[in-house]
């Protein structure tokens, strides 16, 4: 049902009507029809269509990026990177589509077996609001490369750009229905996860929702990939290249207004360099340009919603109550331009005097808030870094190559960045340990999560007369 009429708002991007059972059934049915056709095509044929889609995205990069800024609130420079990563994802998996193959296994007496890598069927993608277009590509590209269809549900807060992707796939020549977008929130997502026509659900979002997705998917034994939240540690040793470590800490905390699942928000700094680190990090954080995300030199745009901004500011207040010290930021920010008044901006925040038991150190804030803590030894910091139910990412800054690899080995996280942070090219697998989820996105391994192996056993001789004794 359309929502009741309300006065038009000049800032509205679209009206979103959530899909109900009928639309979800239709989307899955048409995706299934498209899958029957698409999965019979050769990998090279699928690759050609995907490369054409990648080309169109590249050609329209600036327009899509602009729309993504309006969709999400992130800065235009970041949005362009998201769109570049998106077409690269399509190119990468187009390259793999033509290489999908099985094995040949020799058996006694000339008999043999072979394996076929087959598609799963209709896959569902459920996206978060922080990387709307990129998440749709991270999920659909490997799915389509393997011969699947996808029904994608974007977050209701960022409903628009996934539709652009659907239009581009169609223009590039995928069969009608191969990539369908359904709109809506939890109810629509529930319909998708409970649907018997769905073979797999790939989800990006919060841990509580991820658990529900798993539970619903279990009823019909759907495969599941979960990309959930994090509270990742970033460990900075005193022998680091300080300039890089400071830049890395900013990269680990303030991209997309801090709304990044793999952010390194627990920053452990070796005690000897703490004063100089804090001085530099605060100086740079204060200098971050906040404001109109469509301007070239803006580096921090608006948070996703008023409620989310209030939630993030609430974390800062709670941190103060628990004894943390705000070194900078942590307040609602009103840009000078009149048109931006009422936007959900906040100044990026650095918290000192933090301890491991504080709420700001334990819980995912999903906003521009960095918690800094001192440490003395490698053994101690590893213990503290791993003392969390999350395990998405981690980082270490040091000039000592042995220490870097030793720390990477001992951190319980799906990714460890050495001497940088938040670098996620498509060639590199991405995903979590512990409650940050399972399965992987990107890299060759993701093919495993969007395909299944069939074994074909071929007898070249006679069948044993086993029962005639
Ligand atoms: N790991 C990550 O990348 C992300 C983590 N988050 C975390 O989650 C918090 C809440 O953000 P939300 O957008 O509300 O995350 P969420 O986990 O509630 O929503 C993510 C997606 O799941 C859908 N969804 C919600 N409930 C569902 C259900 N019962 N069944 C099926 N689909 C459902 C939503 O419509 C959206 O498309 C954030 O404050 C942040 O801490 C949010 C976005 C991304």
UniProtKB/TrEMBL annotation:
Pathway participation: Amine and polyamine biosynthesis; carnitine biosynthesis
Family statement: Belongs to the aldehyde dehydrogenase family.
Intracellular or extracellular location(s): Cytoplasm, Cytosol
Purpose: Converts gamma-trimethylaminobutyraldehyde into gamma-butyrobetaine with high efficiency (in vitro). Can catalyze the irreversible oxidation of a broad range of aldehydes to the corresponding acids in an NAD-dependent reaction, but with low efficiency.
Occurrences of domain Aldehyde dehydrogenase (ranges): 16-456
Family matches, as SUPFAM superfamilies: ALDH-like
One CC-aspect GO term: cytosol
Keywords of this entry: Cytoplasm, NAD, Oxidoreductase
Gene name for this UniProt entry: ALDH9A1
Catalytic activity: 4-(trimethylamino)butanal + NAD(+) + H2O = 4-(trimethylamino)butanoate + NADH + 2 H(+); an aldehyde + NAD(+) + H2O = a carboxylate + NADH + 2 H(+)
Record's subunit section: Homotetramer.
Keyword NAD assigned: yes
UniProt xrefs under InterPro entries: Ald_DH/histidinol_DH (IPR016161), Ald_DH_C (IPR016163), Ald_DH_CS_CYS (IPR016160), Ald_DH_CS_GLU (IPR029510), Ald_DH_N (IPR016162), Aldehyde_DH_dom (IPR015590)
Protein name according to UniProt: Aldehyde dehydrogenase 9 family, member A1a, tandem duplicate 1
Active site, renumbered: 227
UniProt key word DNA damage: no
MF terms in GO: 4-trimethylammoniobutyraldehyde dehydrogenase activity; aldehyde dehydrogenase (NAD+) activity
Transmembrane region(s): none
